[in-house]
Amino acid sequence: MNVSSIPSFGLRGKKAIVTGGSKGIGLTIATGLAHYGAEVMVTGRNEEALKDAVRNLKEHGYDVKWKRADVTSKEEVEELFSYADEVFGQLDILINNAGMNIRKPLVEVEEEDWDQVLNTNLKGIFLVGQQAAKRMINQQSGRIINISSILGQVGNPLQTSYAASKGGINQLTKVWAAELADHHITVNAIAPAYIKTPMTEGFLQDPERVEQILSRTLLKRMGEVEEVIGPAIFFASDASSYVTGQVLYVDGGWTAN
Ligand code: NDP
Asked: Which of 138, 197, 217, 232 could form a disulfide with 252 if both were Cys (CB 3.0 to 4.6 A apart)?
């Protein structure tokens, strides 16, 4: 072993885009990336929420950029990446995170529900991943980190469109890893279980639901949003240089059960 080859978890000099970075898991990962030294740009649809998030981060000493973009719009995604080209000049890390959910029994899912979830969670991941890959291929380096969910793996009720989108993300992760490996780009996914964020706080107010979740979770507690930072830093940093095409479950042991 060569001591001088011990890899770094540090991200100084790296440039990162985090989609859906105005709140929840995206904002938390953005904060973690900035904490480890990366220059970060957060995106989302709500400009005020982005400005608030960035202002708050500034108060904690992190200078994060923002740009409004709807990931379902090819045009807005292209504008986002052009802006990042101008501001950063390179792209090292993509956190492909923007997502949403509409929970309904199969027989009640409207076509519009399906379209909205699949457009955001799967088409959005594709549009954003494609723009990032173009830049990373030119650079011959990069890290793409897709945010999936345990629901891409386990079959839970009320998740018809969401589970389809997250299963799709797991598969895209493997395909992109295979395609981009020759360009020194790694592609991995993080698949959290239920974590309290603006997306899930209503759903998690039902004590029976929480009890069901805990009964499946080896660690017998809910995950905290900050617990997604470690896996994101690992995949974004040199420490994961020989890891690609993987889905890492951040689920307290749910999927091991
Ligand atoms: P939140 O609802 O808290 O945040 C979602 C983020 O995505 C917001 O910044 C939102 O901003 C943005 N967003 C949503 N739609 C779009 C769009 N069309 N274009 C651009 N941005 C968009 O969700 P979470 O933080 O909980 O979830 C983040 C990711 O983590 C999602 O992919 C989710 O599926 C995944 N996940 C979450 C889990 C959980 O328990 N919380 C568990 C497993 C996975 P805006 O509304 O302004 O556009």
From this structure: 217
